């Protein structure tokens, strides 16, 4: 307020404050909604030995996610005496917080579906093995694209260029490698961060489309076909 937002009113500040407060409270509710039933099931003896290990790992991830959130917010509250720029959290910590959330969500969903739906027993053909490997590679690419989005958000890199497919008047911007050393551009140069996110996004939707087309050539169960089709639909919407 002293250095930048002189005109902010108390109601405007309360709006930001309650957004942060609601996010924290919601995170705690999610943690309790997971940990309390898990403890109950454990006590009743309803968990198998392998499932106990998975439950402990997910409980640890829930706690770790909350710790990362605090660590991320802390970076936005640190005093920077030589800078009067807009206060923002570290893009590194933001990416870590998002990445941890994606791992927690995916692991929870995978565990739930594994318990609810019986696993298909399919013949291990060469095509099926290739499809599974390609699906894992596509998953990793999508995860990397999401993490690059956290760097875009953390650096406000989306404000640098707002045209597509070109960035301004050029396909490759002049300031792509403006920082030194060169590796620093990937994580701290807003232009490079936005450029990388665009390339990764295009690569992700291309990979998902290729996965869908490849899956059409293999006899798959109805549930698997629905999953691949849904993946393509969501990728297009995204």
Automatic annotation (TrEMBL):
One of its GO terms (biological process) is heme A biosynthetic process. Its cofactor is heme b. The keyword Transmembrane applies. It is a multi-pass membrane protein. Its main location: membrane. The chain crosses the membrane at residues 25-43, 55-73, 93-117, 138-161, 197-215. It is found in: Membrane. It catalyses: Fe(II)-heme o + 2 A + H2O = Fe(II)-heme a + 2 AH2. Keywords: Heme biosynthesis, Iron, Membrane, Metal-binding, Oxidoreductase, Transmembrane, Transmembrane helix. InterPro entries: COX15/CtaA_fam (IPR003780), HemeA_Synthase_type2 (IPR023754). It comes from the Eukaryota. It holds the Pfam family COX15-CtaA. One of its GO terms (molecular function) is oxidoreductase activity, acting on NAD(P)H, heme protein as acceptor. Pathway: Porphyrin-containing compound metabolism; heme A biosynthesis; heme A from heme O: step 1/1. One of its GO terms (cellular component) is mitochondrial inner membrane. PANTHER family: CYTOCHROME C OXIDASE ASSEMBLY PROTEIN COX15 (PTHR23289), CYTOCHROME C OXIDASE ASSEMBLY PROTEIN COX15 HOMOLOG (PTHR23289:SF2). This is COX15 protein.
């Amino acid at each position: 307020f002293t250095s930048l937002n002189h005109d902010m009113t108390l109601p405007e500040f309360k709006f930001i404050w309650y957004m942060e407060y609601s996010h924290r409270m919601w995170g705690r509710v999610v943690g309790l909604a997971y940990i309390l039933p898990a403890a109950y099931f454990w006590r009743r003896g309803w968990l198998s030995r392998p499932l106990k290990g998975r439950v402990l790992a997910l409980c640890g991830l829930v706690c770790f996610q909350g710790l990362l959130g605090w660590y991320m917010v802390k970076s936005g509250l640190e005093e920077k005496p030589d800078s009067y720029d807009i206060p923002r959290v570290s893009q590194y910590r933001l990416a870590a917080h998002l990445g941890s959330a994606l791992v927690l969500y995916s692991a929870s969903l995978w565990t739930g579906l594994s318990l609810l739906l019986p696993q298909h027993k399919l013949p291990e053909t060469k095509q099926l093995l290739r499809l599974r490997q390609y699906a894992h590679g596509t998953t990793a690419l999508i995860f990397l694209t999401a993490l690059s989005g956290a760097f875009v958000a953390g650096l406000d890199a989306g404000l640098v260029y707002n045209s597509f497919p070109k960035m301004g008047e050029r396909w490759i911007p002049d300031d792509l490698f403006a920082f030194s050393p060169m590796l620093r551009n990937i994580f701290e140069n807003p232009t490079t961060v936005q450029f990388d996110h665009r390339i990764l996004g295009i690569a992700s939707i291309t990979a998902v489309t290729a996965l869908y087309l490849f899956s059409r050539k293999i006899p798959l169960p109805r549930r698997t076909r629905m999953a691949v089709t849904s993946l393509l639909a969501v990728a297009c919407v995204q």
